[in-house]
Amino acid sequence: MSAARQRAMPGANARRAAAERRGRRAEAWAAWLLRLKGYRVLARRWRGRSGEIDLIARRGRILAVIEVKARGDEATAAGSVLAKGRQRIGRAAAEYLAGRPDLAGLDVRFDVVMASPRRLPRHLPDAWRPESR
């Protein structure tokens, strides 16, 4: 966003900063939940050329690529991982795995953790499968 546009929208930066804080808090809660379930968090906010992955965690032979969604309610959170986002996350996961040959033999799964106010985060294992090309 241009500097002129940011000045014209004074509340935009505050809203963006609040959303960023909410997202970071949700990711911290999600990591906590996953650790309680026996996962070892390997990466938080991993960023590659293809995009960002919120959490990457391992439990046994499963490598979970996790998208964390912080929304006002669970229904909104559940519907907020759109096809375009799933494709981006799938590409980012392939990029991450290309740099980690030690993880090559694991079963990769794409999960979602939904976080909403005044509720414990909810983990949805195997929330989607990447589309084959």
TrEMBL record:
Keyword Cell inner membrane found: no
Biological classification of the source: Bacteria, Pseudomonadati, Pseudomonadota, Alphaproteobacteria, Rhodospirillales
Keywords: Endonuclease, Hydrolase, Nuclease
Protein name, UniProt field: UPF0102 protein EDC65_2722
Domain of life: Bacteria
Similarity remark: Belongs to the UPF0102 family.
Species name: Stella humosa
One GO MF term attached to the UniProt entry: nucleic acid binding
Gene3D superfamilies listed in its UniProt record: 3.40.1350.10
